Amino acid sequence: MVDTVRLVTEPWVLDLDGVIWLGNEPIPGSADAVRRLQANGAPVLFVTNMSRLTEAEQEAKLAGHGIDAGGSVLTSAMAAGRLIEPGERVLVIGGPGIDEAVGKRGGLVVRTHPAEAVIVGIDPTFDYDELSRAMTAVRGGARLIGTNHDPTYPTAEGLRPGGGAIVAAIAAAAETEPVFAGKPNIVAADLVRSQLGDAGLMVGDRPDSDGLFATVLGYEFGLVLSGVTKAADLPVEPTPAVVADDLASLVSTRLG
Ligand SMILES: [Mg+2]
Fold first, then answer.
1. pTM score, two decimals?
2. Residue ranges of the chain with per-residue pLDDT less than 50
3. Strand 89-93's sheet: what is its strand order?
4. In the chain, what are the domain boundaries?
5. How far apart are CA 44 and CA 200, in angstroms?
6. Most CB atoms closer than 10 Å: which of 5, 42, 81, 239?
7. What is the reported pLDDT for 220?
8. Looking at residue 191, what is its pLDDT?
9. How far does the centroid of ligand 1 lie from the alpha carbon of residue 89, in Å?
10. At the fourth CATH level, which superfamily is domain 83-180?
């Protein structure tokens, strides 16, 4: 009986791409599995390194997949926002999600130097002019903050450059090292632990991001094979506490 209570209230941290959806395609059974967790009273937090969308946009995308995620989304943009102080001028290379996170922290989004910080995320319109402006700010003393280090991300058309590739270009031009905020970094981990406590299950499809994040959190790692990692890639490091074909089967395994 005691074990049953512990299991149903165990916090779940869910990665999005490769767990809930692949690009825009829903992974069958995942939305039902999330509803089952929520109905069982399990705290559920959605954690993604995608920085472009605002909190409301990310929640709306989840709602479009049949998932109620109100107030339960943590993006790498929100984590990056924790690395600035109120009143600081922040040069943003990225999308509305970063602008929003900076504003919520009381920072001021600027387009050119002077700035106290440069926050960089995925930006499909990134160009030489932005590289130049970011470089000038960092060489002028601004801190270089990356939302995440992911070099690529998967799409239906194949790999595309990720936010980490853009941060790397700016770091090279400025001859400095960036700090990173999203999974698997401590900034995001502190935010998760402040909401869910010191024990839980981190579910994701990437050992190098989600698995490492579970280690930093001190949570168990639940690996799903519905994203970039396939059965042929096993074994992986860090070693998952549990491996499942997808979120639906993982939830069935844990809840019975
Ligand atoms: Mg993923």
1. 0.93
2. 1-7
3. 108-110, 89-93, 117-120, 143-146, 179-180
4. 2-49+184-255, 83-180
5. 10
6. 81
7. 98
8. 97
9. 31
10. HAD superfamily/HAD-like (3.40.50.1000)
